[in-house]
Amino acid sequence: MKNLVIKCFRLFISYKLPHEGYDTVGFKAIDQNKDGIININELEEIVGPTLASEIMGCVDLNGDDKIELSEFAHAAIDFKKVPDDLFRSAFNYFDKDKNGVISMEEMELHVNNVAHYWQEIGKEIDYNEFKKLIQN
Ligand SMILES: [Ca+2]
Ligand SMILES: [Ca+2]
Ligand SMILES: [Ca+2]
Fold this sequence. Notes:
The chain has 2 domains: 18-76, Recoverin, domain 1; 80-135, Recoverin, domain 1 (Orthogonal Bundle), CATH 1.10.238.10. Helix content is 57%, strand content 6%. The chain contains 9 helices and 4 strands.
């Protein structure tokens, strides 16, 4: 998923979900020095430098150039199974002025260069649209 706005939504939801029970085998396979974090070198070993930096850009959601288990897990979450109340609380979090839609200005607080990504979305996001964006 390339759109940072949607990534940001998903990250928020994934941080709220419990992380027990996720399949950590894939993570451990990449985390060669077993420090619980995937760094760029470990990633490069597996996929090469170009793809590694692209993956880091997508998966490293807090921007510290390391992939933690929660960041890794979020890529594997089935967002279709996320309960409604979690969607609702995430939506309310982003809808700062509580007018029922998430605007580009509201997302500016979370995403750099949001205008670039907003073009793809094209309009303010209501709750149903929010769910659809995350689940698709
Ligand atoms: Ca490591
Ligand atoms: Ca990180
Ligand atoms: Ca709003």
